[in-house]
Amino acid sequence: MDPDQFISYKYRAQMHEKKGELKEALRFWGEAIRSEPTIPNLYVSRAQLLKQMDNHEEAVKDLEKAHELDLEDGKISRLLKIFRTELKLTKTEEELTKGIGEDSSYWEAYYNRGTFYHRSGKKKEALADYEKALASKASKDIWFKKGLILYEMERYEDAIKDFDDAISGGDKDWKIYSTRGKCFGALNKNEEAVKDFTKVIELCSEERYKAEAYHDRGNAYKSIEKYKEALEDMSEAIRLSPEADHYFGRGNVYSSLHKYEEAEADFTKAISIEANHWNAYRMRALSYFRMKQKEKGIQDLTSILESNENPQIYYSRGVAYAGMGASSIDNVISDMTKAIELAPDLAGAYQMRGVAYNTIGKVKEAIADLTSAIKCAPQERVFYEIRSNIYIAQNDFKLAIDDISKLIELHPTSAKLYLQRAHLYDKLGDTGRFAEDYRKGSLIKTKKKLLRGQQAK
């Protein structure tokens, strides 16, 4: 046999795979292997095809043969481990499905398979099985597990309904109250969240989980601006379980109270416990900026970016550089460019880079960036304001009028905008439009003045 014949078979197998002709592809992989039975990658390729065709057992056999031919290939070893695990799961699913049999009222079989699906990450399938189980037997445990999946899927309103059903029988399981409280928090229903986390604190005896409940209730208190209660809860969470997240939570409360030194201390403690707590770095940076320690803030944001390229962090660091004067303009442009590469719809980054370009005289680039910002957020007035000012500085009054007209459309009761546009019409010698805008602006200004006078009485 031609020693290169297997190459022809290999290419034909790949061609049929691309066309979706899997049976033909399988036949030619077999021919390729018969031509050259000692090449491990041929078995790997056929195993991947067999898996695609749901023939998991044969796929594992092919990988075992590939591994036998090359014991040193780590990729084959890892793939074999994955395939064996998937085969085991497939067999478990088949066994659970057989358990259901012909009796659709056999709730426990649906419950067991639903639990398996949930653990396997098949949430939709798990929901369907829990629904079938509930049709035959209303159970607190099934309601809770179904609600838990809905919570994970961020279907908070639906999850709350299931948790309500689980609790309706007077259940004392703190886990149900805890997850329902998190749902309320996600929906910004923080008064309800406080009640549920309070119930968790009453029912739960394990310090670790009680600490989590204090932390969660502290966040809910913070959201409704009950900062005294929030600080007390966060401090109790730290006492019970001095975890990084608990120090981070208390630091956030201090930050909301503008107590930036205390916030910085808590964020630093969180970082000392968990070196990769990037949110703590981000919030500590904000504390430094508030305390006028910009270099330290930039250093924290840089620490995040060394491990996690995040467009918002590049944006934040660029804003910080912008506050450091003309000497940092290149850094502003660099950070905003990176932010835009990672998030092309980040309007604020275009704005900041446009302003930086304008500062160094690159007017064309500045206008292009502000135009991009407007495309990303056409209702954001500040973009039109900045671009109109650039047009005015370039004596391009017609384009400036276009931007101010858009601003008037967005804010039709602004006397200042009408008067500004009147001034530009005057520059162009358009006396008719000048008079009209001047009259409208003066009228709005007079009405507002009269209204303020009436309110003062």
**Percent of residues in beta strands:** under 5%
Name the poorly predicted regions: none
Oligomer: single chain
DSSP helix count? 25
Give the termini separation.
Answer: 106 Å
Mean pLDDT: 89
SSE run = HHHHHHHHHHHHHHHHHHHHHHHHH
Helical coverage, percent range: over 70%
Strand elements, count: 0
From the spread of the alpha carbons, the general shape counts as: extended
Strand count, sense and barrel status of the largest sheet are: none
- Which radius of gyration do the C-alpha atoms yield? 32 Å
Class derived from helix and strand content: mainly alpha
List the main descriptive attributes of the protein structure presented here.
single chain, mainly alpha, 0% strand
Topology of helices and strands:
Layout: H1 5-18, H2 22-35, H3 40-52, H4 56-69, H5 74-100, H6 107-119, H7 123-136, H8 140-152, H9 156-167, H10 174-186, H11 190-203, H12 207-223, H13 227-240, H14 244-256, H15 260-273, H16 278-290, H17 294-307, H18 311-322, H19 329-342, H20 347-359, H21 363-376, H22 381-393, H23 397-410, H24 415-427, H25 431-456
Helix pairs in contact: 1-2, 2-3, 3-4, 4-5, 5-6, 6-7, 7-8, 8-9, 9-10, 10-11, 11-12, 12-13, 12-14, 13-14, 14-15, 14-16, 15-16, 16-17, 17-18, 18-19, 18-20, 19-20, 20-21, 21-22, 22-23, 23-24, 24-25
